[in-house]
């Protein structure tokens, strides 16, 4: 991602933020939420090509490092879950739904723990074999 891409993304975010503030002050909260979701979607869509490049780079790095592709893929899934759930939680907070945001974060933590369970199991088994 170039600095120009970053500045464009920041400019989009600033414009969307101003639109959302204007709509909220105009007592059009539902339109403000739609604007926030649309702005977030535009930003995410702008980032997708960069995310694809990152994924390819990290996959190549994993192959070079000799780490099992299973474990490396697991790490990437965990990072993806964290980012997606954070995005969803922030959308809920923008809609003044903090309780739902907390539940999304809890769901993310449980999903991450479930993904990490095989890794933890192999570590415990390795330690048990050493003892």
SSE map:
Layout: H1 3-25, H2 29-65, H3 69-94, H4 98-130
Helix pairs in contact: 1-2, 2-3, 3-4
Oligomer: single chain
How many independent structural domains? 2
Structural class: mainly alpha
One letter per element, helices H and strands E, the order comes to HHHH
What is the arithmetic mean of pLDDT?
A: 88
Main beta sheet strand tally, sense and closure = none
Strand content: under 5%
- End-to-end separation in angstroms reads 48 Å
Number of strands: 0
Q: Please give the share of residues in helix.
A: over 70%
Low-confidence stretches: none
Instruction: Assign an overall shape.
Output: flat
Radius of gyration: 20 Å
Count of runs of 4 or more consecutive helical residues:
4
Key features of this structure:
4 helices; mainly alpha; 2 domains; 131 residues
Protein model, in words:
It is a single chain. Helix 2 (29-65) runs antiparallel to helix 3 (69-94) and helix 3 runs antiparallel to helix 4 (98-130). The chain folds into two domains: 1-48; 67-131, no CATH class. The model has no long low-confidence stretch (mean pLDDT 88). The protein is 91% helix and 0% strand. The chain is mainly α and 131 residues long. It is flat and about 65 Å long.
């Amino acid at each position: 991602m170039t600095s120009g891409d970053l500045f464009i993304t920041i400019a989009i975010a600033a414009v969307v933020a101003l639109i959302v503030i204007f709509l909220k002050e105009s007592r059009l909260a539902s339109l403000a939420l739609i604007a926030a979701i649309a702005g977030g979607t535009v930003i995410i869509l702008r980032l997708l090509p960069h995310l694809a490049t990152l994924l390819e780079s990290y996959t190549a790095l994993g192959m070079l490092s000799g780490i099992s592709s299973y474990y490396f893929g697991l790490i990437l899934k965990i990072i993806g879950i964290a980012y997606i759930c954070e995005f969803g939680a922030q959308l809920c907070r923008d809609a003044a739904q903090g309780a739902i945001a907390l539940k999304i974060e809890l769901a993310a933590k449980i999903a991450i723990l479930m993904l990490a369970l095989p890794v933890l199991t192999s570590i415990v088994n390795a330690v048990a074999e050493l003892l």
